Amino acid sequence: MILKDFLRNAGTEKNLSELILFLSSQAQDVKKGFFGNCMKTQACEKTKNTFGEEQMALDKLADGIFVSGLKKSRLVHYIATEEQEHLITVDNPKNDFGVVIDPLDGSSLIDVNFCIGSIIGIYPGHVLEKGIKMVAALYILYGPLTILTVTTGKGVHEFVLDESGEFVLKEQ
């Protein structure tokens, strides 16, 4: 079963489903970006994020993909990422969701070819709410398989990206 059908069958609210599907498509763009950027020397492009941690070129690429995509789609009102110094407020949002993102967790492992991922939390309003208010969470693991793990509060479900670009439920 593909992610879209799973969310519908699970009774996930329409706007939340639309956001989760959008984020899953952005993750595919992040993965595509690896091919062009992993061949470059990562060390020559290092900078520091707001927490003083080194940013790799792929950190900035992933952050740019998620932030620009979310701003353009207007599916959220607030965006907070590890790579941005300030909270981003989206003008004329379609929804009042707040999203927190670590666009590329584990980027220091890129040079040793270990799996890395994107961590995403979705809130029903502002991103400064308590964690218990979160309505969904996703982790996308980029490796030999691209795996999306998601919860909307009714269990945790794992999907694998297939050759056609669909996330397919791994187990029921």
Fold blueprint:
Blueprint (H helix, E strand, L loop, with lengths): L2 H7 L4 H24 L9 E2 L5 E2 L1 H17 L4 E4 L6 E2 L8 E8 L10 E8 L12 E7 L3 E6 L4 E6 L5 E3 L3
Parallel strand pairs: 3-5
Antiparallel strand pairs: 1-2, 3-4, 5-6, 6-7, 7-8, 8-9, 9-10
Helix pairs in contact: 2-3
Mean pLDDT: 87
Quaternary structure annotation: single chain
Return the string of H and E elements.
HHEEHEEEEEEEE
Instruction: Please tell me how large the radius of gyration is.
Output: 16 Å
> What structural category do the secondary elements indicate?
alpha+beta
Number of strands: 10
How many angstroms does the end-to-end distance come to?
A: 9 Å
Helix content: 25-40%
At a glance:
With 172 residues, the chain is α+β, with helices and mostly antiparallel strands.
Give a verbal description of the structure.
The protein contains three helices and ten strands, in the order H-H-E-E-H-E-E-E-E-E-E-E-E. It is α+β, with helices and mostly antiparallel strands. The strands form two sheets. An eight-stranded mixed sheet has the order 4-3-5-6-7-8-9-10. 28% of the residues lie in helices and 28% in strands.
